[in-house]
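Re: beginner question about structure tokens

> Can someone show what the tokenized structure looks like for a real chain? I only ever see the sequence side.

Sure, here's an example I had lying around. Input first:
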Amino acid sequence: MKVFVNNKVYISNHDIKFLLREHYSMPLIVLLEIDDRFVEDYDKLLRSKIHDFMSFTSEEAEEYFKGLDFIIDYNEFKDKTVDELKFEQKIYEINKMRIENTSPTLSGYNVQEAKLKLAKYEHIIYSFDELINYKEGTLRFNIPRQYNKNDIKRLNFVCTMFNNGKNLKCPETR
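And the corresponding structure tokens:
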């Protein structure tokens, strides 16, 4: 899942793992940001919680992730009902079945393209499952959210109260 807020793009670890597992082409800036976080221990990424999010701040990363239609955009689906999400998911399930039941050469794909297309559909279907479970309250994860000016004022007030009246800003609002 991807979330665009506060001049950042947040990508779930599940999606990052998918991109790496499928050897999906990524811009160097994205690879470097992933590498900077996990340079010491790539197993750390494999062990990380799939519902955690990794943030990217570069415009190139933002444009790259906007173009990946197999990573669902939370902002696009956050206001939909569970039934609407299930309907969207069903469309992907039908398309996946079409590819599974058609010879790759007849569908216009070579075998590798067909396998990648199937993997993308499976990924989207799984992501819809996660979003549906989140909406139903059976799955919890922290969706990055947009802070407006009132939120930031409130956070700064709370930080000031907890810092003995010193006007210190919270790290998240700097």
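Each token stands for a local structural state, so reading them left to right follows the chain. The beta strands are 2-5, 8-12, 53-56.
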